[in-house]
Amino acid sequence: MPLPPEVAARAFILQDLSTGMTLASRQPDQTVEPASLTKLMTAYLVFQALQANKLQLTQELPVSERAWRTGMTGASRTFIQVNTRVKVDDLIKGMIVQSGNDATVALAEAVGGTVENFVDMMNRQAQAFGLKQTTFKNPEGLTAPGHTTTVRELSVIATRLITDFPQSLPYYSQKEFTYNGIKQPNRNLLLYRDPTVDGLKTGYTDAAGYCLISTAKRPVPGNPGATRRLLSVVVGTASPEARANESQKLLNWGYGAFDVVKLFDGGQAVTTAPVWKGAASTVKLGRTQPLVVVVPRGQAGQIKTSVVRQDPLMAPLTRGQSVGTLKVQIGGQTWQEMPLQSLDAVPSAGFFGRAWDALRLAIQ
C-alpha cells in the first residue's frame, strides 16, 4: 500500500467508494466528537421521510421555541423565527448549506415528533448500519456527554447517504443560501477550489476541532465515461483552512497513487458453479455491476484472482444472491475480497430431482 501524505489532523480516513476500499487511515476507530458532522445522520432520516412521503419539499413546518433557541446557542443558524412556518426545502438548505442548528431541530421535530424521539431514530439507524461506537445525543451536533463516533463510522454514514439518497448531493454542493435576507456561504472551502468536489459537510466545536467530510468524483483516465468517487473524513484540525488543505491533500493523493482496473463487466461470468437440487445444474457467478479494483499505481500487471465458493450450492438461488468470494492478490498477498453473486435465479427441482441429488450428496 502506498504511504499516504502527512495529514495534520487528530484522525482521518480515505475511502474509495467505487470499490469500497479503505485507501488510508489514522486512528480510524478512535472515539471523537462529530460536531456538525452529526447532521449527516439527521439528513439521512429527513431524506428517508421524504422518500416515504411523510414529508414534502413544499410543506411548511412550524418553528418551535426549542428550534429557535437551539439556533441561538451555537454559531451556526439559519435565522428562522419562532412561531413562523418554513418550507422543508428551505430548512434542508439551512441545515446543509448553512449548518443551521435551528433548521436542523425544526426538521428533527417534524420527522420524529419530538427531538428525543428523533434522537432515538438516529441511534436505531446507526445500529441498522452496524455502527458500534456511535451514539447520538442530539440532531445538530452541539457538545453533549456521550455524543461520540469515529471517522470510520462517519464514513459509513456519509457513504450510505450518498448511495441511498444521491438526490441529496445538489444540496451539499450548493455554495450559498439566503434566508430571511441573510446570505451565508457554505463553509466547505473545497467547493470553491476543486470543481470535482460536490460535498459534503463541515463541523466545529472546541472539543472536536475543525472537521470536514469531503467527497469528489473524477473521470478514470483511459476509461471514457467511467468515474471514481472518493470520500475523505478529517477531524481535529486547527482551522477552517487546515481542514480544507488536509482534505484536498488526501483526495489528490488517492486519485494519483492508484490505478483503477476493471476485472469483469457487469453481468459477466467470473466462473460457473454446480447447483444441487435445482432446476438447472449450474449457475454463473459474477456481479450485476462491474467488478473494479484500485491497485497501487503500476501494479495492475501483478493482479491474480481466485474464487472461493460456498459449496455445495443448494437451490433455490435468487438472482443477486451472494454465493462466493473473488479474492484479488497482488504479489502473492491478498489485496481485496469481493462478494460474488448468482447471475441467474435457480428454482428448486421437482421431487425426484431433489431426491436424486440428496442421494448423490449422501454418497459423496
Helical content band? 25-40%
Mean pLDDT: 94
Using only CA atoms, what is the Rg?
Answer: 24 Å
Distance from first to last alpha carbon: 43 Å
- Computed structural class: alpha+beta
**Major sheet characteristics:** 6 strands, mixed
- Treating each run of at least 4 consecutive H or I residues as one helix, how many helices? 10
Helix and strand element order: EEHEHEHHHHHEEHEEEHEEEEEEEEH
Anisotropy-based shape: globular
List segments where confidence is low: pLDDT < 50 over at least 5 consecutive residues: none
Q: What is the beta-strand fraction? A: 25-35%
Order of strands side by side in the largest beta sheet?
Answer: 14-16-17-12-11-15
Q: Count every beta strand, where a strand is a DSSP E run of 2 or more residues.
A: 17
Describe this structure in words.
The protein is α+β, with helices and mostly antiparallel strands. It is 30% helix and 30% strand. The protein is built from 10 helices and 17 strands. The chain has helices at 39-51, 65-73, 88-96, 101-112, 115-128, 151-164, 169-172, 190-193, 240-256, 351-362; strands at residues 11-16, 21-26, 60-62, 85-87, 176-179, 182-185, 197-205, 209-219, 227-237, 258-264, 269-276, 282-286, 291-296, 303-309, 313-314, 322-330, 333-342. The chain has a 6-stranded mixed sheet. A 5-stranded antiparallel sheet has the order 2-1-9-8-7, with helices on both faces. A two-stranded antiparallel sheet has the order 3-4. α1 (39-51) runs parallel beside α6, α2 (65-73) packs antiparallel against α4 and α4 packs across α5. It is globular and about 75 Å long. The chain starts with 10 loop residues before the first strand and ends with a helix. The relative contact order is 0.13.
